[in-house]
Amino acid sequence: MNNKRTHIEVMHDILGAVKNRNGKIKPTHILYKSNLSHQMMTSYLKELIEKDLLFEQRLENGRTYSLAPKGYQFLERYALINDFTSSFGLNSN
User: What tens digit of pLDDT does each residue of 34-71 get?
Assistant: First the structure.
């Protein structure tokens, strides 16, 4: 049984972690919630920022990340696709 998450699932987990923290989160919380190594998390965050799904805010004492409008759309559409595939028994979960 292969329990490895796909690239899209990891992106969903990160964006979902941000949303569940009222749309704003520190990197440490992303690290714990998404179950990634620091290096992998950094790579995903960079990609999500480049794709306009997340905003990064640099502060004196660190950084925070918040969902961009496109990030909210991603989560909504991901849920639709997940519901659709589930309704036909196509999910591997």
Answer: 999 999 999 999 999 999 999 999 989 899 999 999 99
> Looking at the domain 7-84, which fold is it?
Arc Repressor Mutant, subunit A (1.10.10)
Torsion sign, CA atoms 26, 30, 36, 39: negative
Residue 91 has pLDDT above 90, yes or no: no
One-letter amino acid of 38: H
pTM: 0.89
Q: Which two tokens stand for residue 16?
A: 């979902």
CA distance linking residue 91 with residue 80, whole number of Å: 13
* Residue 83 burial class via C-beta count within 10 angstroms: exposed 0-12, middle 13-18, buried 19 and up: exposed
Listed by start position, the domains of the chain span 7-84
Nearest of 15, 60, 19 to residue 34 by alpha carbon? 15
d(CA 2, CA 20): 27
